[in-house]
Amino acid sequence: MHKKSKISFKAINKLAIPALIAGIAEPLLSLTDTAIVGNIQNNPTEALAAVGIAGSFISALIWILSQTRSAISATIGKYLGAKKIHEIESLPAQIIGINVAVSLLIYGFTLFFAHEIFKMYNADGLILNYAVEYFTIRAIGFPLTLFVFSVFGVFGGLQNTFWPMVISIVGAVLNIGLDVILVFGVEGFIEPMNIAGAAWASVISQVVMAVLALILLLKKTPFSLKITLPFNKEISNLLSISLNLAIRALALNVALYLANSYATKYGNNYIAAQTIAFQIWLFFAFFIDGYSSVGNIVSGKLLGEQNYKKLLKLSIKLTKYSVAVAILLSFICGLFYFQIGKLFSKDELVLQSFYSVFWIVLIMQPINAIAFVFDGIFKGLAEAATLRNLLIFATFFGFIPVLLIGDYFNLKLYGIWIAFSVWITIRASVLVIKFRRKYSHKNT
Hints:
By secondary structure, this protein is mostly helical. The longest helix is centred in the middle third of the chain and has 38 residues.
C-alpha cells in the first residue's frame, strides 16, 4: 500500500483504464438519454432540447459540488505518500456528511425555482414544460450522485480505481436498460413514459450506485461513515480546496449556461444540435479524464513523497497517452461523421446544424486532453487557487468576448464552438507553462 509510485506505462494504465471506464459512466447516461429522447415519437426535437437544458443545469450543480472528490483524493493521496493515513481516519465521513447536507439544501432550493431557472435559459412553451418535468424527477438523484462521487474520491486517494469502475459499470448498464424500457414502454406491461421515463431511469440507477458505493466504502477502505468530533485537522484545508474548485466550476458553468442560452435563442434546431454536440464533447472529456484522474491520484502521492522528478515524468507520459487517445477518438468519429448524428435525431434541420460544427468539436480534442491532464495534476497538487483563477480568466476574458463577437456577426453555433476552442486553449497553455516553470528544475 505504501510502495513508491511507479510511472511506467503499465502502472499508469492500471489506474487510468478503470478510471476511464468509471469516468464515462456519467456522460454515457446523458448520451443515452439524449439518443433515446431524440427518437421518441412525440415532439422529439423539443424533448431533446429540454433534456439538453435540464441535463446541463444538473451537470452544473454536480460539477460545482463534486469538487470535494478531487480535494478528498488529493488529501488522502498526500497522507498515503507520507505514510500517515491514520491521521485522517475521521476525515472522509466528515466531508461526505457536509457534502450531502449541502446538496440536499441546494436540491430543495432549485426544485422550488425550477420554472424560473429554465426560463433563464430562454426556454418557453413545450421545451420549458419538458425541462421542468425532466429536472423535477432526475434531481431526486442529485444528493446520491454527490455521495457516490465523494466515495470515488476516497478510493482515488487510496490509488484504487477498480471499485469506482465496478460501480459505474453497474449504473451505466442499468440506466441504458431502464431507459429503453421506461421511455418506449413494454407492450402490455408498461406504458411509454417518454421524457419522464428517461429521468426515472437515471434516478433508479443512481440509487443502486449509491448503495454499492456505501457497501464498498465500508468493506474495502479503512474508513467508516461514523461522523465524530472534533473535526479533523485537515477539514479546513480540504474545504478551502473544495471552495476554490467550486468557484472554478461555477465559472466553468457560466460558459456552459451562456452556450445553451444563446443556442436556445437561435431556435429549437440549434439548441437540439448544441445538446448533441455538447454531450459528445462531454463524453470525450470524461473518456480522457481517465488519465486526468491518474494525474489527480498520483501527483498527490508524489507530492507526499517529495518526488518531483517522477512528477515531471508523470506529466509527460499522461500528456502523450491522453493526446493519442483523443486523436484516435476524433479519427473514429470522423469516419462515422454522419452516422453519429443520426443516432440522436432524424430531424434534418437539427442534423444540418449539428454537422456544421461537429468538426470543431473533433479538432479540439487533443487540446482538451492536455487541459484535462494538467487540471488533474494541479488538483492532486492541491493548487486549487491556480485552477480557480485560470477558469475565471478563461471564461470572462476568453469565452465570453468571443461568444459575443460571434453573436454580433450571427455565427450562431460556429460562434459558440469557436468560443469553446479559445477557452480550452487558454486553459491548456497556461497550465503547461506554469507547471514546467515550477517543477521542471526541482530534484527529488
